Structure formats: C-alpha cells, structure tokens
Amino acid sequence: MKILVDADACPVPVREIIIRAAVKRNIKTVFIANQKLKLPSESCIQMIEVEQGPDIADDLIVDLAGPGDLIVSEDIPLADRAISRGAVVITTRGLFYTEENIKGRLATRDLLETLRSGGLETSGPGVYSQRDRRMFADQFDRFIQRNFCR
Fold first, then answer.
1. What is the rounded distance in angstroms from the CA atom of residue 146 to the CA atom of residue 64?
2. What is the domain partition of the chain in residue ranges?
3. Is residue 1 within 8 Å of residue 69, measured between CB atoms?
4. Cα dihedral across residues 48, 46, 39, 29: positive or negative
5. 3-147 belongs to CATH 1.10.520
6. Which residue stretches of the chain have pLDDT < 50?
C-alpha cells in the first residue's frame, strides 16, 4: 500500500503531516504535481512532476492507485475514479470520500459547476484553518494506524 498526494493544491501543513508519517513508518508516498516541490530526500518519498494541463496529474494518480492505497485530494472526480479502483480518498480537511458519499458529492459538484457557468456566483472553500489541520491529522493518523501499522 502507498500514499498518493494530489500535491498541486495541498496545503503545506498537510504535506508536512504526510511526510512525517511516511518517514516514521517507511510508507511509500508519491507527491504528484505540475510543479517541483521541495521534499526531503528520503527513500520512501517520491516527487513526480507532470506537465501543465487539465487532469494530467489526476490521470496519473488514478493510474497509480490500487486497492487499499490512500489518496489525499480535494478533487471529487478524481476521488470517484480512484474509489472505483479500490483506493481510499481523504481530503485535506479530514473528510473521507467513500462509495456511499461520492456519487452525491459528484452530483452536487456538477450542479454547482452548471450554475456557475450560467452566471451564478458561489464562494469557494474557506481559508484552511488550524481546525482543518487538526481534523486532517486526526483522521489521517487513525487511517495510518489501522492500515499501515500491522
């Protein structure tokens, strides 16, 4: 099992939490982004830089994802595709996308996208807070304890 990180929009505190856990437990962790990130040179940490373009990083993440892998991403269509491959997806705010909730979230996302393209103004996610960081850290740690520490 491995951790795959949709790293383009991954907040630095989340990246740090992931790296600490990966190094401590020697978990293969791959950061995928369309720009080079400064990451520690540890054998379990890998950076893959993809070219600019829509869904290029997402496509690679899905291609690399397998059953039981953990993906860190906010991207709902990516999550839907990864879940269908047996991966587990957690957002940077500590919410798990599951088979039970992903289709509803995808439908809501698509509806909002349609409304926005029709001129409706919507707000994006709020500022990433300490509470968000704690929620991610707690949920991430629980998952790691249950699935990577056997």
1. 22
2. 3-147
3. yes
4. positive
5. no
6. none
